[in-house]
Amino acid sequence: MDCDKIGRLIYNLRKEKAMTQKQLADLMNISDKAVSKWERGLGCPDVSLLPELSQILGVNIEEILSGKMELNETIGGNMKKLKFYVCPQCNNLMTATGDANISCCGKRLEALPAAKTDESHSLTIEPVEDELYVSTAHAMKKEHYISFVAYVTGDRAYIVKQYPEWNMQFRFHKLGHGKLYFHCTNHGLFYQLI
After folding, report:
1. In which band, very low, low, confident or very high, does the pLDDT at 64 lie, cut at 50, 70 and 90?
2. What helix, strand, coil percent values describe the chain, rounded to 5?
3. 79-193 domain in CATH 1.10.10.350?
4. pTM
């Protein structure tokens, strides 16, 4: 741990929040001298204080300990770079268009790799007027089902959450070429070109 780097990061984050050392110290029930000591690189926060400090400053504990924040490049909202994250415990779905540190149920999640559909994992897509009617014969049982479907174009993403024992069929307004992503709870993320 580099106390100088950690101190500079704490200082910068505190200033972003427009807080004084005393205000930060009062929120944490410590002395403002301790905060001053951290910011000057003369010591580091105690491990027991890190969860509260990260919550107040709005940053991950790992970033505090590394003393730096990794910023993503601005990619102009290109939805084609959309990444999907699904929690294996609660099936929570999260997305990001850039690199992200995402966790759920206490575990860090990795972006799901998308595979091109195979015969056992294929959605039926039928054009109906200006919409796409999507359906499947895939099993929709509690232990094996499609948890979401996402229609992604260059500037938009439409996501439909699915649940076990539902009859999976719905419509998307047709927006041109893109990808249709869907997640099988047993086999992972797939895509089809539209």
Report:
1. confident
2. 25, 30, 45
3. no
4. 0.68
